[in-house]
Amino acid sequence: MRAMVVEKPGTPFVLKELPVPEPGPGEAVAKVYTCGAGLTLQHVKAGRSAGKFPLIMGHEVTAIISAVGAGVSGLKEGDAVTIYFYLTCGTCPSCTSGRENLCDNFGGFVGRQVDGAYADYVKLPARNFLKLPDGLNYRQMPGEVGVVTDAIATPYKVIRRARIQPGDTVAIFGAGGGLGSNMILTAKWAGARVIAVDRGKDKLDLARQLGADEVVDVLHNDGLNADVPDQLRAVTDGRGPEVSIDFVSSKWTTETSLASIAKGGRHVVLGGGGDVFSAKTAEFLNRELELIGSRYCTREQVMGSLQLVADGEITPYVGEHFRLEDAEIAHERLEQGIVMGRAVLDINSFD
Ligand SMILES: [Zn+2]
């Protein structure tokens, strides 16, 4: 099989011909049709996040089970599947209390600690394959269906975690990116009014196309726009947004968001490189602000997201397609921050 391998951090992909993996006990192998490419993966490739090298990355797939190992039940050859991103134990208190994303025996990430899906086939613990629900049009839109497991499921979880209600105003920092663009779609589905915050006209135009009600540019005269809090208040009758969802989570975006949100506002942290920020505790007290971390989602939330797409409630936004062999081009664009929406590698076709 073809596989795009990263030999060590900071090096380009190498196209390799490898044997098709064989499933061991409790494992399954799937043929990959499409795989999403996002900034989380680029952080690993560049060496900013940990991974086990040499490495095949990728987890946002539409795939078909091609072989199952001994002891696997509930999954068979021919099943259409996607991948749950986290390697979890299924038995610890977190896993059994509906917070498997916080598994106490966390084994890492598909495509980081074990090989992922930038390849013709992917082998994983069978429980990491989730069967696609009936009615999901995966043959006609495999790229869109494949990214649901992260690019829709992560925003879908944020809706609950930040208690977003119809009529709430939600600011999205990084709204033109792979997750941010799909957060716009998901927040609109939830009935929110959306303010997209990102850099540059192209990303903000995309945000508007996807349904953003207002846009705010973080760039001004080649520098960061110090007026973002004022601009956010100006489009919210002086109150500020009830919820701010920050896919950038840099020091600047965090402090800007906290300075912008309404009384009782919620700031949601996703992604980012672990920046340190400053805030006055009095702000949290006097304005009853909430700081909320939101980390991926549960299997149930992935299934809920897939069902939304099957029901036609949301169609994920995929902005760019690449061949498997062009993964390096996709990742160069991710590194430069110029990919519009989610990028997808088209690896095999249904015929
Ligand atoms: Zn667990």
Could you characterize what this model shows?
This protein has about 350 residues and is α/β, with parallel strands linked by helices. The protein folds into 2 domains: about 1-150 and about 295-345, Quinone Oxidoreductase, Chain A, domain 1; about 165-295, NAD(P)-binding Rossmann-like Domain (Rossmann fold, 3-Layer(aba) Sandwich), CATH 3.40.50.720. It has 10 helices and 17 strands. Strands 3, 4, 5, 6, 7, 16 and 17 form a 7-stranded mixed beta sheet that branches. Strands 10-9-8-13-14-15 form a 6-stranded parallel beta sheet, with helices on both faces. α10 (about 325-335) links the parallel β16 (about 320-325) and β17 (about 340-345). α3 (about 140-160) crosses α4 and α3 (about 140-160) packs across α9 (about 300-310). Bound molecules: zinc ion. Zinc ion (ZN) binds near residues 88, 92 and 94.
